[in-house]
């Protein structure tokens, strides 16, 4: 059986922090995605989800300096869960999307869903 852990997101950057570790650069990006639907009464509802994206600059990830709040991004990566202890001493689980590819979306038509 083939195993697969792959995520594709298209959304808008809400925050970005770029860090340098020795000679490597890494970005932590807050990415918002929307899901639009109508409720039973026909009213339009937009459900926004926030994703934590971790991107290490390299072969498929360049130009971290071009990404800022409001930039439209396409992210391909994998889901990673990490267990940590909060400041209150409670165990928690954090979820990150570890990016293997980042693309800045210039064309608004690419933000729509394609199947």
Describe the structure.
The chain is mostly beta strands and 115 residues long. It has one domain: Nucleic acid-binding proteins (OB fold (Dihydrolipoamide Acetyltransferase, E2P), Beta Barrel), CATH 2.40.50. It is 0% helix and 62% strand. It has no helices and five strands. A five-stranded mixed beta barrel has the order 1-2-3-5-4. The protein is globular and about 55 Å long. The two termini are 25 Å apart. The mean pLDDT is 90.
Q: What's the total count of β strands?
A: 5
> What strand order characterises the main sheet?
1-2-3-5-4
The profile of the biggest β sheet is: 5 strands, mixed, barrel
Protein structure class: mainly beta
Topology overview:
Elements: E1 7-21, E2 24-38, E3 44-56, E4 72-85, E5 91-104
Parallel strand pairs: 3-5
Antiparallel strand pairs: 1-2, 1-4, 2-3, 4-5
Task: Write a concise keyword list for the protein shown above.
single chain; 115 residues; mainly beta; OB fold (Dihydrolipoamide Acetyltransferase, E2P); five-stranded mixed beta barrel; 5 strands; 0% helix; globular
Put the structure in a nutshell:
With 115 residues, the protein is an all-beta fold. The protein is 0% helix and 62% strand.
